[in-house]
Please model this.
Amino acid sequence: MGKDKLKIRTMYRATTISLLITVLVGCSAGQTATVQPKDGGAAPVADTPLKELSIMTQYSTPEPPKPDNVALVEMEKYTGTKLNITWVPSTAYIDKVNVTLSSNALPQVLMVTDHKSPSLVSSARSGMFWEVGPYLKDYPNLSKKLPAVTKNASVDGKLYGIYRGRVLGRYGVVYRKDWLDNLGLKEPKTIDEYYEVLKAFTTMDPDKNGKNDTVGLVLDKASLDTKDFFTWYGAPNGWEYKDGKITPDFMTNEYLDALNFLKKLYNEKLMNVDFPVTQNYKDLINKGVAGSSMSCMCHALDGSFNSLAKIDTNAKIDIANTLKGPKGERAAASSGFFGMFMFPKSVVKTEAELKKILAYFDKISDDKMNFLLDWGIEGRHYKMENGNPVFVDAKLFGDEVNPIKQLKTWDGSSYGTATPLAKKLLDLYALNDKIVQHDPTLPLISNTFTERGTDLKKIITDAQIKYILGEFNLDAWNNAISQWKKQGGDKVIEEFTAEYAKQNK
Model:
């Protein structure tokens, strides 16, 4: 075994012990245990690699990766497969998928971000895509999928693609450690302690600039979609099965308690009062205005707050996982994945061709390829210090390697243990994994929810905001719930309940 290969294998094994929550299909929402792929060849069912592979996927950078992208070239060399990638802007991707489905220009691999949309569910049921579940056992990396994630990613109990895994217990609190230290405070462990920290961050000049220009918590217009905070209060993660029926979280008393807490923060101006129109909560942290967010803990390490150092060289970011609430320590599980690679039968015409494609994905799910997409190329993007990788040019990595992560089958949350914060992240992921609350509706399909989900969600989101702002009282909040039920919510509950009963006989 070569020296470089041994180095990578040793590092990934050490990371795996700590990262017992990263999920991989070879991994969204990492489910209950970190499963890292072992370095090794693809399954013997496809001895010769594909010469070329066509893929459609998205990008969120200013420009799409070019064919000579260094990470892409390394992948092509390693797999022996030339990639013909159609890169589509993420803002237009869903529309592009729908247009592609109705055309005769499908690629061999179609990445979809919502495989349970009406068009994709209909397509899967009609036999348009290969069901890959029965094949994965033949592939050493893809076979390490986790049952909980596979269930969430399935349609009618069948897996129609390779999902892109995510850590299960990824949510927590990201906060300014230097502010906490300036005020002589300790990391919050409970909701009540967090309130005191938010109050201090707002009123006690935590940045020591002599001005009243900070706020404890930052939310944006998408923050209310994050279920973790409501789960801390004892509410279910989105939905719950209770008394023989599936019901939404916002119909519980615990959810209202959490909403009242946010209302209190708003009234006391301990959070940004313009949250309904704030586009990106990270901006206020990077500007040195906000001291914490309730979000993915991964953002403390993924470069989200690199801009903060430009305005405050003493700034330090830290994380906490779950805050103890009325029902103890609880965390909301993510779905375990985001997006799925699907294989159209009209293009992938034979089982032999499918197996070659699965072998390709199995190979890019091994340790060497995961390490490449996590850290890039040694000497160019990272260097080794004390046996751990450390970025030498994070911007270059972001420009050259980050966009290629769209091709990964797991989220690459193996940041190593080069810093105390990196090790803490992995440890908190593992702790969260033990207390995650799952959304029982993720494996289910409600036709009404699929068709009217966006409109139904708007009813509740608008009511949430108005309740926090004081424009809705309790009666108005309850009226909004009644409106949700009448405009399709009751039908959604009925359909989800029937599906749940069918799948849990």
